[in-house]
């Protein structure tokens, strides 16, 4: 398939094109015209991509996310190889109805940076933040390129999706180096890890009672069924299970062409079995646990699976956790 | 890590996940169960927070099967569930619901309940916790608790707990509350007694502590040096619709709202910082506030500081309304107050000289509950005359319902050559900043009860001290030779003139909502 060029993209869907130097003024005008609109913002959410195909999907994603998390949204498409250098910007309001009469809106500023280098990206982000609010960046591109210390030292939360990485081992190395650097105080959220949240919750339910807990030491194998392209999500889940059990269970990964990212998890040992199963169309998971003769089943929410829902969900779960970063070295070693 | 801890749970939740539990609801065929309790449990299930192997048993007098009971609850859930109704989830969730028919006074019925609970435990393979929820009429509390004890259901089995949740009203005066507390205490330990006040489950009520103790700009100013006064308003634009008059006319605004909900808000605003967030640390501080309320003893003190009133015929938002005494099931000669306003003083170092004005009423222009903290004016404002500063003090408003949020009123210079000031409002609204709906108060409180967190529930001494204070006012109203006047206000107005005068005498005004 030929690569997508800017000419193939309906850029007018990004809103009103505005000279970069006049963004502030254009945003002001955006609000002056309509008093029924209320501007709201509790965070800065920037998405950085170097993939033209991704631009419109991200544009729609921000609309979805802003409906639940009022934000200053920055959407940046950088095309470092493109020449001649050119920077363009668009503004739009992401609105949702509020109490019947009014609408509440977030602001979105979109940039297409042809020939954009790391410095230009940083300057664009820093010049257009809603001041005093946290900065959340979803970095969709290769971490090894424009992701520089000057930039990440100012980020509050970095969102990544390690399941998208072509070379996850290399990317995890960069991420670990950034996290371990003096200025790497940012919180990291991996969508691949968030995808397994419902599996982890469901697994906890399997082994909630005393009888099941007694049998945990008998577990020997982990079997995870995942969709193609979600191997990292499955590995992260397996690392977590081994960490929690303080053991090293035999791991089997089963890849499926279609279906939800994570579709099944089975932990098994003599006389003990825990299973979490997600059917394709269901928004619930079936959980069953067996200890000896006794089997019980439950239905639990399956959580969300799309990128938009995942980002929305993890913006709701802001509390610093070192769990993910503590698992990274183990995931890294499994990727070898 | 002990052998029996679930290692998978530890890293998942910011709160502790509750263990397997059976909830028995007494008065299960009532409105509360259909409108609030079951939809709350259903929504907890939809969030995946329900304890595993959870069971609900509805306990009531009418004869019906599990299937009929589930079908009735399904109808209620479709109408009242915050997250809507999903057939697949309901099918799974409803399997955990059972019905048990018995009279409240029939010991055999409780013994049969015990056998049913044992059967559930046998199916689980281990004993589970037991939560008894008293959603029946208050007069049934005593026989229910006595029968629970007589049937031996008040003791947990196999190291598990048994708890009780009591719905309001918790007594109608100090004597009845003490009596009820004695009955409860004879059946359950105080640590296992959860007196519910759904106001404390509201997001903004919980946010009061965060606002005060997590923001360094507020706490240093949160005292008599900087705060002029505090107002707490709970306005309702309805009257006695739906047959409420029968109960309400025996209670009145003071007992129905002030003793519990508004005193809870008052304590959250006025309490000292707790040493930690344990239930008793928080509740210790709240009790201190109630104990420090300056008593209003005798008709004179009550008359000077409390205004009671009944509404007369009028209209609310264009709709004609009858007067209170003409309402359905209300005594035509009723001396019950659907409106009360109070001036309260808290005799602590922090609040010396700062009045807390509370008002609650029916048939007012709008439905709103909010707390407003009115700061003192600066000692001198060089660019304003005294008249320009009228009603322009900095005001922090905490909106409890509807439209939960926080607003701060400040003065700004108007644009232009002249030095003119203008009041402006910085407004934070939960619903516009967080698109995600807050959980219903009952969801939070039920989850706390099954997880063993009593922070948002009232403790015995809290309830009794509140009644002790309220009783003196009731005594002055109903047992003195010179009772203070019962004022009137037209339905749809903001209350009687006497309530305005209560503040005017102090050089203040009620905030315009």
UniProtKB/TrEMBL annotation, chain A:
It holds the Pfam family OpcA_G6PD_C. Coiled coil: none annotated. Residues 64-173 form the Glucose-6-phosphate dehydrogenase assembly protein OpcA N-terminal domain. It comes from the Bacteria. Residues 188-327 form the Glucose-6-phosphate dehydrogenase assembly protein OpcA C-terminal domain. This is Glucose-6-phosphate dehydrogenase assembly protein OpcA.
Automatic annotation (TrEMBL), chain B:
Catalyzes the oxidation of glucose 6-phosphate to 6-phosphogluconolactone. NADP(+) binds at residues 61, 103-104, 168. Residues 24-207 form the Glucose-6-phosphate dehydrogenase NAD-binding domain. It holds the Pfam family G6PD_C. The keyword Zinc-finger does not apply. The gene is zwf. Keywords: Carbohydrate metabolism, Glucose metabolism, NADP, Oxidoreductase. GO terms for cellular component: cytosol. Belongs to the glucose-6-phosphate dehydrogenase family. The keyword DNA repair does not apply. Residues 209-511 form the Glucose-6-phosphate dehydrogenase C-terminal domain. It catalyses: D-glucose 6-phosphate + NADP(+) = 6-phospho-D-glucono-1,5-lactone + NADPH + H(+). GO terms for biological process: glucose metabolic process; pentose-phosphate shunt, oxidative branch. It comes from the Bacteria. Its EC number is 1.1.1.49. Substrate binds at residues 198, 202, 236, 256, 362, 367. The active site is at 261 (proton acceptor). GO terms for molecular function: glucose-6-phosphate dehydrogenase activity; NADP binding. PROSITE patterns: G6P_DEHYDROGENASE (PS00069). Pathway: Carbohydrate degradation; pentose phosphate pathway; D-ribulose 5-phosphate from D-glucose 6-phosphate (oxidative stage): step 1/3. This is Glucose-6-phosphate 1-dehydrogenase.
């Amino acid at each position: 398939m030929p690569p997508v060029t800017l000419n193939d993209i309906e850029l007018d869907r990004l809103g009103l094109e505005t000279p970069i130097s006049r963004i502030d003024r254009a945003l002001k005008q955006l609000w002056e015209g309509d008093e029924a609109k209320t501007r709201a913002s509790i965070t800065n959410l920037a998405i950085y991509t170097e993939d033209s195909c991704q631009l419109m999907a991200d544009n729609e994603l921000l609309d979805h996310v802003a409906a639940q998390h009022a934000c200053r949204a920055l959407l940046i498409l950088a095309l470092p190889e493109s020449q001649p250098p050119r920077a363009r910007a668009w503004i739009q309001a992401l609105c949702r109805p509020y109490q019947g009469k009014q609408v509440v809106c977030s602001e979105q500023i979109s940039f297409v940076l042809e020939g954009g280098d790391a410095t230009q990206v940083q300057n664009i982000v820093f010049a257009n933040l809603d001041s005093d609010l946290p900065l959340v960046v979803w970095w969709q591109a290769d971490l090894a390129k424009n992701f520089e210390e000057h930039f990440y030292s100012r980020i509050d939360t970095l969102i990544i999706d390690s399941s998208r990485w072509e070379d996850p081992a290399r990317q995890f190395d960069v991420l670990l180096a950034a996290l371990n650097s003096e200025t790497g105080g940012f919180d990291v959220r991996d969508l691949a890890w968030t995808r397994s949240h419902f599996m982890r919750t469901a697994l906890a339910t399997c082994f909630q009672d005393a009888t099941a807990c007694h049998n945990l030491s008998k577990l020997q194998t982990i079997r995870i069924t995942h969709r193609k392209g979600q191997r990292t999500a499955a590995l992260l889940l397996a690392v977590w299970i081994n960490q929690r059990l303080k053991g090293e269970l035999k791991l089997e990964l089963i890849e499926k062409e279609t279906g939800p990212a994570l579709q099944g998890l089975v932990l098994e040992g003599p006389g003990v079995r825990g299973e979490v199963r997600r059917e394709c169309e269901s928004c619930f998971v079936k959980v069953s646990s067996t200890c000896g003769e006794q089997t019980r089943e439950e239905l639990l929410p399956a959580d969300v699976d799309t990128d938009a829902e995942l980002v929305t969900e993890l913006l709701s779960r802001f509390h610093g956790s070192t769990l993910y970063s503590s698992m990274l070295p183990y995931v890294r070693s499994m990727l070898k | 890590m002990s052998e029996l801890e679930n290692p998978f749970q530890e890293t998942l939740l910011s709160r502790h996940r509750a263990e397997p539990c059976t909830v028995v609801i007494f008065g299960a065929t009532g409105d509360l169960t259909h409108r609030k309790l079951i939809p709350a449990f259903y929504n907890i299930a939809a969030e995946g927070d329900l304890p595993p192997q959870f069971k609900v048993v509805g306990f009531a007098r009418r004869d019906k099967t599990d299937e009929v009971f589930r079908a009735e609850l399904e109808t209620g859930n479709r109408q009242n569930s915050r997250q809507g109704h999903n057939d697949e989830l309901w099918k799974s969730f409803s399997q955990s619901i059972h019905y048990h028919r018995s009279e409240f006074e029939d010991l055999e019925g409780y013994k049969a309940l015990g056998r049913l609970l044992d059967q559930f435990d046998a199916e689980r393979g281990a004993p589970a916790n037991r939560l008894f929820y008293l959603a029946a009429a208050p007069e049934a509390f005593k026989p229910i608790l006595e029968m629970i004890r007589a049937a031996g259901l008040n003791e947990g089995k196999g190291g598990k707990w048994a708890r009780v949740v009591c719905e309001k009203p918790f007594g109608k005066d100090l004597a009845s509350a003490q009596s009820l507390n004695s009955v409860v205490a004879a059946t359950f330990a105080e640590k296992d007694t959860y007196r519910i006040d759904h106001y404390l489950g509201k997001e903004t009520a919980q946010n009061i502590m965060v606002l005060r103790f997590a923001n360094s700009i507020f706490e240093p100013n949160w005292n008599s040096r900087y705060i002029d006064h505090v107002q707490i308003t709970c306005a309702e634009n309805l009257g006695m619709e739906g047959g409420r008059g029968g109960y309400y006319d025996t209670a009145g605004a003071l007992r129905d709202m002030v003793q519990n909900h508004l005193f809870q808000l008052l304590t959250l605003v006025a309490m000292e910082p707790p040493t930690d967030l344990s239930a008793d640390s928080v509740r210790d501080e709240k009790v201190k506030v109630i104990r420090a309320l300056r008593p209003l003893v005798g008709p004179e003190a009550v008359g000077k500081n409390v205004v009671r009133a009944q509404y007369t015929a009028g209209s609310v938002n264009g709709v004609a309304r009858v007067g209170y005494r003409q309402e359905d099931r209300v005594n035509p000669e009723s001396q019950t107050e659907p409106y009360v306003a109070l001036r309260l003083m808290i005799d602590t170092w922090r609040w010396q000289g700062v009045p807390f004005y509370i008002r609650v009423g029916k048939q007012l222009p709008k439905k709103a509950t909010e707390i407003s903290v009115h700061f003192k004016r600066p000692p001198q404002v060089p660019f304003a005359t005294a008249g320009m500063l009228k009603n322009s003090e900095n005001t922090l408003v905490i909106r409890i319902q509807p439209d939960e949020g926080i607003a701060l009123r400040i003065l700004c210079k108007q644009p232009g050559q002249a030095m003119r000031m203008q009041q402006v409002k910085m407004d934070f609204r939960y619903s516009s900043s967080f698109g995600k709906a807050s959980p219903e108060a009952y969801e939070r409180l039920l989850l706390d009860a099954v997880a063993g967190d009593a922070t948002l529930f009232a403790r015995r001494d809290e309830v009794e001290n509140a009644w002790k204070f309220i009783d003196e006012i009731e005594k002055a109203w109903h047992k003195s030779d010179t009772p203070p006047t019962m004022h009137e206000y037209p339905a749809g107005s903001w209350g009687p003139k006497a309530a305005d005068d209560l503040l005017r005498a102090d050089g203040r005004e009620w905030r315009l909502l």
